[in-house]
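Collaborator request, handled under Task 6.
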Amino acid sequence: MATVIIDGNEIEIGDDERLNGIQAARRAGVDIPHYCWHQGLSVVASCRMCLVETGQRNPETGEVSMMPRVVPACQTPASDNSVFVTNSDKVKEARAMVEEDLLIRHPIDCPICDKAGECHLQDYHFEHGRAERRADIKPFTSRRRPMGDTVTLFVDRCVMCTRCVRFTREITGTSELMVVNRGANEEIDVFPGYPLNNKLSGNVVDLCPVGALGDTDFLYSQRVWFMKKHDHVCAGCSTGCSITVEENQDKIYRLKPRENEHINHWWMCDEGRYGFKHVHDSARLTEPRILGEEGYENIEWSEVPQFVERELRKAGRVAEIISPHLTVEEAFMLCSYIRQIDEQATLILGPIPTVGEDESFPNGFTIHAEKCPNLRGVEAVLNKFSPTLTTFDTFIEQFDLYSPNTVWVTGGYKSDWISAEAAQTLASKNTLIVQDIFSSPVWKLATVQLPGAAFAERQGSYVNCNDQLQSFDWAVRSPAGVMVEGQLYWRMLGRSGLYNAKSMLTEIAREIPYFSAASGGVPNLGVDLKINQLA
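Structure tokens returned to the collaborator:
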């Protein structure tokens, strides 16, 4: 093991690890300020904010020889017996000079800047800047221009870290951004005729350490200190990016990627980033209803479990369509409940929405054509209860062969997912129970209508296309009149207390070998279930 000395404290790093001064300092609990460096991008060492003193310790004598000048930590490798000093007077003076230089030309418009409250320039000024401003205060300008459909550039706020430029060249491979002019007149711009419209463009806003790049969709909508952050999983496709849902008073204002080196690294696609608007759509279904002699009648949620069970037991043969938008826990509870009602019930995998083809980028990030978050998880649950997997298309084609008396359909799809002909087929039997978030042909024919929850309103687990399971808690409460599927199934199974997804996952891990790796709980970044297939 290699030993690195950070401010007099020794830390050990692996012999095969390739760390720089910033990363090594983090191991010691020391945060070295930086603007241009990012772990997922190439190193340019242009901002000079991470300057530190460095040297080498003689392993035999213990004598330390220091370099005469400060060096950028981002560009200095941490090797065996490397010495870094991050808090000396020389380092503090260097950081203060960098901050002072940046603020000479930077507009002090924090009250109207969307980045206020999460801006590195603000934080570093208070922590590392000078106590007093020595330059004349000048009126600020706020030149702004669109970079594309999703990103707005505030030219005068830019500190020329070039993270955004490197992102478009190294991560997306589209190279729309460049640096124009020279010296103090340098600016970020797009190549003429090539706006920033790649499918990962929103990530440059996350990368920007100051308020230069703004999310056009989020601009001036909410102050960041009012919002609460919740760790969650993107339900836009089967990649299952780790994300943070940021909301205020149960309204989502933005989604941001959460670092997870096993799944999405530091990125997410624009489709997922802006794909939450349906959660607050005014067309959301919010009333549980049953079809009576004079049309639909509202029913209280407290009466739903008993009413549905009576209908199911009276009907006889039951068919259940399990949506790939349900969580692992919800799918397991629903299958368990249906098996209690009818041991021979037909369990069907719901429609799998697919759009286009998988699209991969140079760094390996992939946007999958499979637009559902939990296909692998639902398949694993269905394999526990049924020897063969029945798909939705097969069920519709051979509906008369299965001949159910009652069909229970779970949805959760953002857009039209079922044809009028398929809906007519499902409604041809005695009872049709439908859970969904938006109206559809099958919803309009249902005898029991149960409004469902959107992804941000659920708690539970998803398994992505690479068999990686991630658990999450709900981020916003569902609209009035909606009961989350997990809560309903928990009640229908006769479980006491509040729905507990963690305890349910532990139970599932005991019963289904595929999930056994999750028996000890799921860490924040998930667990790889593929190890069970290889064992």
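The cover message to the collaborator said: "Residues 89-105 form the longest helix (17 residues). DSSP finds 16 helices and 29 strands in the chain. Please let us know whether this matches your experimental observations."
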